[in-house]
Design goal:
Length: about 140
């Protein structure tokens, strides 16, 4: 007898009894069911693995989104700080200009005081009798 896979239908039918055909049929049927169950188990495992990977991927995407949001918030804070520094610099510049104006006003006041003192000295000299100066 040749191996089962290499026999043709006629030879197989002639050499096997009906009980043997039933046994072979049941064996092949059981093997097919077993293979189908194994494929179903493999599909279930792969689906569960795929679901797990999707969940992990979604978690990583969420973490990346949160990190991007934190970076955006930090950038906004830096922009706000830069704006505040610019405002402080402008205020300092305004104060410097005000101080320079006050210095100029003080210089004018000092000059006016000197002019007034000079005029007062001239008036004092003119009001003194001349004989005091001719000694």
């Amino acid at each position: 007898m040749t191996p089962l896979g290499y026999t043709d239908h006629c030879t197989l039918k002639e050499n096997l009894s009906s009980e043997q055909v039933v046994v072979i049929y049941n064996s092949l049927k059981t093997k097919n069911i077993s293979e189908n169950n194994a494929m179903t188990d493999l599909e279930s495992y792969l689906k569960a693995e795929n679901d797990q990977l999707r969940a992990e991927n979604n978690q990583l995407i969420l973490q990346l989104d949160q990190a991007a949001l934190q970076l955006d918030q930090a950038a906004l804070q830096l922009d706000q700080m830069a704006f505040q520094l610019d405002q402080a610099a402008l205020q300092m510049e305004q104060m410097t200009l005000q101080m320079e104006q006050m210095t100029l006003q003080m210089g004018r006041a000092e000059l006016q005081l000197q002019q007034a003192t000079s005029q007062l000295d001239q008036m004092t000299l003119q009001s003194k009798p001349r004989f005091f100066w001719n000694k």
